[in-house]
């Protein structure tokens, strides 16, 4: 019997062993690994580890700190299953074992008997579920945009991104404020913040003065609008006031756009090239398939012409020249030749142009001729105190045009005539000539020559700006400044010529000449264009959309006032630092692409438009309805 007991015991142990093997084999996670003797080989990363299914699950779950290296190639669905197998379903555990709070530092704290997972495990838990949840949230967002007729470009706006981040940081317990709370509390709070900002800006006016900008237009319904904006170096938006001894200047940016238009109309060699460039751009963006092929071939976007900004034609031409080699290869490719979209007359003309050396040579000549004018436009087309630089920039542009076209008198003289006509009639005001003289860095240059226009500018100041009791001191101090007296041009002042904006230089170094200092700071603090004003054309219309047309006039005014000053606040720090440093006319920012109709192939690629900080996204369509006209000043 003893032997029989031994046999029975061995059989029993064998059965237990076999049962364990069967159970182990049935675990569904073994399909993700190859079983070896006492080890396993992961099917995803092909690495071999010792242990059984528990270590396999740990390996696949990507939960660190479980005495095994995690798999970096495991599919998301397998990783999720392994994580749940180890940690349990978070939603079920929250109901059955208590709650988990999150402290201010973002670490999880277990409460009421629940198991606590450290910060690393908690992060992994979020990663497991956010993939599926994100798709649901994205669809809800899409539905929200559709049902409320919101422009898709809003997703690119900084304010929308900030909103999403704030809601996500708050958590799932966030409740949307009521209509009444939004209207009676939250909007007024934003207005108070804007008023605080406006008060800060106004306080700078005593020193710097300000420019009042106005811009008029008519909408599609025949309504006439006048946009009035007060600009100061501190910010530059929506401030009104009446000041004695005002003077009126024209928008230099608009004058330069008109100059480019004049050249297009009167210089045939320029017009032909621009028309050909627009033909190429139009054909490339006319069809989705062709556009996709072009993008793949060039790895770049072409710029688009804008009917209200003639400098956009320069950008179109420049973008073509930048990808000349890629376009040549593209129109010679099999994809281009075999496409049915390239069988018509326009396509054949485009092919001929792109393969024509003469076209590219003429295009580069036009760019050379127009670049000096566009360079000045880059100076003035935006925010910033530029009045002390406009005169010098225009003189440099004129000399550059002469240098580049001087060998061809017919081409040069016509552009020179058009340049002078617009310069004197629409761009340079006597105050700009005076500002050039009052720019100490410009006046102290070796090649500086005081022109008749500068003297006339000082005379304009004397007659129109200087108070009667200050006129005698003003003239004396102008002479001291012109003579570069050591009273003001000491070693500190000479060093600051290279490091400071002219208005900052006068504010810091001009104490020996108090009267001249006061007026120099004010003049040198002003802009040369109303570009920032034009970008805010539709502020009132933006507030008075169909969904808001029952708002009171007071609420409409509050919305416009608040919106525009919030936008200005966003630029406050940038403008402050920008207006502390001198402007290098050789290193100006590039022109942004002018937004017109946001076109893309067959209208389905229009999402390429990027938001600019002062552009009303809901009313971008307005630009394409405006004809580029010579406004009467």
Automatic annotation (TrEMBL):
<dbReference type="InterPro" id="IPR007021">
    <property type="entry name" value="DUF659"/>
</dbReference>
<dbReference type="GO" id="GO:0008270">
    <property type="term" value="F:zinc ion binding"/>
</dbReference>
<dbReference type="GO" id="GO:0005634">
    <property type="term" value="C:nucleus"/>
</dbReference>
<keyword id="KW-0479">Metal-binding</keyword>
<keyword id="KW-0863">Zinc-finger</keyword>
<dbReference type="Pfam" id="PF02892">
    <property type="entry name" value="zf-BED"/>
</dbReference>
<keyword id="KW-0862">Zinc</keyword>
<dbReference type="Pfam" id="PF04937">
    <property type="entry name" value="DUF659"/>
</dbReference>
<dbReference type="GO" id="GO:0003677">
    <property type="term" value="F:DNA binding"/>
</dbReference>
<dbReference type="Pfam" id="PF05699">
    <property type="entry name" value="Dimer_Tnp_hAT"/>
</dbReference>
<feature type="domain" description="BED-type">
    <location>
        <begin position="24"/>
        <end position="78"/>
    </location>
</feature>
<dbReference type="InterPro" id="IPR003656">
    <property type="entry name" value="Znf_BED"/>
</dbReference>
<dbReference type="InterPro" id="IPR008906">
    <property type="entry name" value="HATC_C_dom"/>
</dbReference>
<dbReference type="GO" id="GO:0046983">
    <property type="term" value="F:protein dimerization activity"/>
</dbReference>
<dbReference type="InterPro" id="IPR012337">
    <property type="entry name" value="RNaseH-like_sf"/>
</dbReference>
<keyword id="KW-0539">Nucleus</keyword>
<protein>
    <submittedName>
        <fullName>Uncharacterized protein LOC109728860 isoform X2</fullName>
    </submittedName>
</protein>
<keyword id="KW-0238">DNA-binding</keyword>
